[in-house]
């Protein structure tokens, strides 16, 4: 599950003491385009001060609703893009929600006041760099075209006589800013379903509607496998496709449809309401919708690939009813774990979406059901000559990776919702234990039935 960091405030920060301001003008802070390191990326940004902002500093700048980690990362990204000349026009229409737009405005205003950067010059240098790269690519193409023309000309000379007129290829690069489409602007304005600032609510008020919904979903998922009857082959939509593949194909189609809708501006309003979870606003149904929602194709492709390789195996083992129940319940519990983590920390500036919580549950269920068996990725790794790693051990490694992702010393991009993953893993382990309990009860009932069988019944079942 991915996280989109966003921020908001009711007023801009108005002042700091002189010693603190000196940390923003330190020579170690990169403020010129030529100083940008080769390893720079827009996702990581650049340091905007010597020491990260403290909690009280963040409160003074942004107000309530954002923690220091998120605020420092937001300002680092904005500062990096100012220096790199890749900062988008904050006044141009975009698909950001109101919290993120306010965060950009507040962060940029504060950075421009405290960390001087010649943004116009940096943007110009960035444009020159891009133009030079484009011109270099065009020069290569021109050279290849000339060589191809020379070869063609030589071939023609061999065949015919007379004069040849050789046309020199010309390419023109036009840089322009596209105009605003009135309909696009209308839909982008309608998508803003959140208030400018989060409503004043207690922790319980923010969580109980979503908690109640998730509780109901989990109960429904426990009951569903008991009443679900798989359709006969003649009644299936795709009778020639294995049931597991058909189920995964159906889930993938739903995810793909939502992915396409994220490119359709008229749908933005409803997607923001029901297919993205934002802690600053209480929308319980989004905890279910967001497990089918992806904005980036790489995010969608990776999740669906994992779903196919692990999900088909679990599906074959537990059946469609149990599999769908595990997928939905783990996704809902993962989303609720993520929501709870943000609310407890008082951070209402991050929205999340993606099937990762549900997938974590599917992975955990499968590994925990085979906890003592050796695990092999794609059936080949690790090779037989290597020490065996039990499935439970592999699950512990996965959980440890998310715990490390939450640690303060972790320097990787904070765009993964580790709490949703951990919630999914926990729910998956619980689902596996529930399946094991059902299996033990079935074995006990069957054993008791066999012990109480009459002589003729034993003969009829071939047990004599």
From TrEMBL:
GO terms for cellular component: membrane. The chain crosses the membrane at residues 207-228, 244-264, 285-311, 323-344, 351-369, 389-406. Coiled coil: none annotated. Residues 286-432 form the Peptidase S54 rhomboid domain. Keywords: Hydrolase, Membrane, Transmembrane, Transmembrane helix. It is a multi-pass membrane protein. InterPro entries: Peptidase_S54_rhomboid_dom, Rhomboid-like_sf, Rhomboid_protease_S54. It comes from the Eukaryota. Belongs to the peptidase S54 family. PANTHER family: PRESENILIN-ASSOCIATED RHOMBOID-LIKE PROTEIN, MITOCHONDRIAL (PTHR43731:SF14), RHOMBOID PROTEASE (PTHR43731). This is Peptidase S54 rhomboid domain-containing protein. It comes from Hyphodiscus hymeniophilus.
